[in-house]
Design a protein that fits this description.
By secondary structure, the chain is an alpha+beta fold. The two termini are 16 Å apart.
């Protein structure tokens, strides 16, 4: 299956922060992203989430990720926020509630093909007893 997605990642850069460290926070989770610097923020784009998906599997937070993705879904798009400090350390930590003092990393994923549901199943598959279901195990 070939997926067609556009991923836009934005992160504020405060006066007290080192721009390169914020860029590292983005590329630690999205190594294939192309990062551009703008006054007060970084914007990155990519067309894949393979490394991010691997981190979700390694950290065993697939159910949490699915919840965040579906909570942030609108039409063919889903959005979520990540904590900068965790991302700088190469860890996925979803930002919920009040934004961090330094701001969060905002990720917007537009799915062109196939559907959002199918793409989410690919990035963060459904689980049973904390383990990803193999294709066909979920009755589809």
């Amino acid at each position: 299956m070939i997926y067609s997605v556009d991923v836009q990642i934005t992160a504020p850069v405060n006066d007290t922060e080192v721009t390169d460290r914020v860029a590292d926070a983005i590329t630690n989770l999205f190594p294939e992203a192309e990062v551009e610097e703008y006054p007060g923020e970084l914007m990155a784009t990519t067309h894949q989430l393979e490394h991010f998906s691997e981190r979700l599997h390694e950290q065993e937070i697939l159910d949490t990720a699915r919840g965040q993705f579906f909570d942030g879904q609108e039409g063919d798009t889903f959005e979520f926020d990540l904590k900068k400090q965790a991302a700088f350390q190469g860890r996925v930590n979803f930002a919920v509630g009040n934004p961090d003092e330094l701001g969060d990393i905002h990720v917007r994923v537009r799915v062109k093909d196939p559907s959002v549901d199918e793409f989410v199943d690919y990035v963060a598959p459904p689980t049973q007893d904390g383990k990803p279901l193999e294709s066909g195990d979920d009755g589809r």
